[in-house]
Amino acid sequence: LSPVISRLYSPSDFGRYGSFSAIAGIIAAGVTLDYCQAIMLPKEKAEAANILVMSFLISGIVTLLCVLVFTFAPGTINRMMNTSGAWPLILLATAAFVAGISRSLQAWAIRAMAFKTTSAAQVVRSLTSNGAKITLGYLRFESAGLMISNVMADLAVSFSLGRVFWRDAGLIKHAVRWSRMRNLA
Fold first, then answer.
1. What is the torsional sign of CA 93, 96, 100, 105?
2. How far is it, in rounded angstroms, from Cα 9 to Cα 18?
3. What's the whole-number average pLDDT of the chain?
4. In whole angstroms, what is the distance from residue 21 CA to residue 95 CA?
């Protein structure tokens, strides 16, 4: 689909998208403070559940910190992406949060040995991303279409991996305790 997508967007659209992806990637690298990597380590599922919830909470906190930075320095971030207005900043904060949730759910799925679901989620990511890029390109969304497709792909992966999470939701609900999360942190 790359030849089709490359005809729908201009080089400047891809440049803005590249800047957006670079900043989103930097934020996403630390959005869970890498607690998502620790989900697979504990022997007890209850401890892993506490780390998962902690990873979700940290993703929310880091996203809120990003929103504060974007609120007080919108011009700086927009200049870095060569964009204007609030929509790129909102997409960037959304991308950070969704990436954190997606990474945490992926680690939980790997821990649960749901490898088929993890593989299917990657197919869902590709289909969602490329489908959204083509659809939004035809609708003339310009660079916003590329950015939105990135967020949509991570969101679709989160929903796809959410099945594994919901299967264990009862355990997670009963196992999560603030004191346990603090000790594990």
1. positive
2. 13
3. 92
4. 9
Contact predicate 118/109, CB 8 Å: yes
Q: How far apart are CA 36 and CA 40, in angstroms?
A: 8
Query: Cβ of 14: how many Cβ atoms within 10 Å?
Result: 15
SS3 83: coil
- Candidates 58, 57, 50, 49; CA nearest to 31 is 58
The Cβ-side half-sphere exposure at 126, using a 13 Å CA radius, reads: 7
pLDDT at 74 over 90: yes
Contact 104/39 with Cβ under 8 angstroms? yes
pLDDT digits (tens, 9 = 90+) for 22-31: 999 999 888 9
pTM of the model: 0.88
